[in-house]
Write a structure and sequence with these properties.
It contains four helices and four strands; from the N terminus they run H-H-H-E-H-E-E-E. Helix content is 29%, strand content 11%. One of its GO terms (molecular function) is helicase activity.
């Protein structure tokens, strides 16, 4: 393989002098719509676990209900994914083509629950806490102007 004298870092050439059109880092990576970065391997591991939750069986029904109704009430027993998955789907809906702006606010019964869920959901969404996902509890706010999904306790109005 010969090296051209006028090459740039991004140019890769074969012996024939032709540039390799198939060469490119990250061409097969999926991009996170929330932060614009490629998903980590941890994201895919957590996604596989998330898809085993029973709430995933009704995802399309929920998304249809969300799109066609002003109010959607979700109930379910613990460990179904309703507290972690539903808010993520709502946040995705806010970022969809129909709604370029919006915020999802999830109330929890106590402040520790709000913080724990925010941390878990940020991990599942592969984003940093305090940016796209955050929480607000009495005397503490971990959010910014880019926060799309916010967990709060019942005392925050």
């Amino acid at each position: 393989m010969s090296i051209e004298s006028n090459w740039t870092e991004a140019d890769i050439f074969y012996e024939s002098g032709e540039e390799d059109p198939s060469f490119g880092f990250g061409d097969d990576l999926e991009i996170n719509q929330f932060d614009g970065l490629p998903f980590s391997s941890r994201y895919y591991k957590l996604l596989k676990e998330r898809k085993t939750l029973s709430v995933w069986k009704v995802r399309s029904q929920f998304e249809d209900a969300l799109e066609n109704n002003q109010l959607v009430i979700v109930s379910g027993v613990t460990k179904t994914g309703r507290s972690t998955q539903i808010p993520q789907w709502c946040a995705e809906f806010c970022l969809s083509a129909q709604f370029q702006h919006g915020m999802v606010v999830c109330t929890q019964t106590n402040k520790q629950q709000a913080v724990d869920l925010a941390l878990r959901v940020a991990d599942e969404m592969d984003v940093n806490i305090g940016h796209e996902v955050g929480y607000t509890i009495p005397l503490e706010t971990c959010c910014c102007s880019d926060t799309v999904l916010r967990f709060v306790d019942g005392s925050v109005t």
